[in-house]
Amino acid sequence: MLYRSNDNDRDFEVAVYNAKVRQLTDDNQCHPYLSDHWANAHIQDIKAENEAEARKIAAERFPSREGFVIEQIAPSRYFQSPVRDKA
After folding, report:
1. What is the spatial distance between Cα 9 and Cα 36, in angstroms, rounded to a whole number?
2. Between the CA atoms of 34, 1, 60 and 10, what dihedral angle is there, to the nearest 10 degrees?
3. Smaller CB count within 10 Å for the chain: N or C?
4. What distances in angstroms separate CA 6 from CA 3, 51, 58, 81, one per listed residue?
């Protein structure tokens, strides 16, 4: 999970793929160091205060100059931090 720790953080799912790998696999070629699996979207879990910060964290980890495309960002359906009872 990618994150910067903060008490207000929420969990987000980010779908990211690599356009260079996608083009190469369409041409029946391989990327020199990335797996062909990067032609398809990978779901990355990111902790961030909001969607804009989640996008920034994802963009730092998966830079567009290297062919990565952030396809979608959404609040996580599965990894939300549990809410503590105030009892």
Report:
1. 33
2. 150
3. C
4. 9, 14, 17, 12
Q: Identify the CATH number of the domain defined by range 2-75.
A: 3.10.20
Name the pairing type of β-strands 42-48 and 10-18: antiparallel
Angle at Cα 79 formed by Cα 60 and Cα 61, nearest 5°? Answer: 10
> What are the structural domain ranges in the chain?
2-75
Average pLDDT over residues 61-67: 97
Taking the model in full, what pTM does it have?
0.80
pLDDT in tens, 19-37: 999 999 999 999 999 999 9
Nearest to 16 by CA among 43, 51, 34, 35: 43
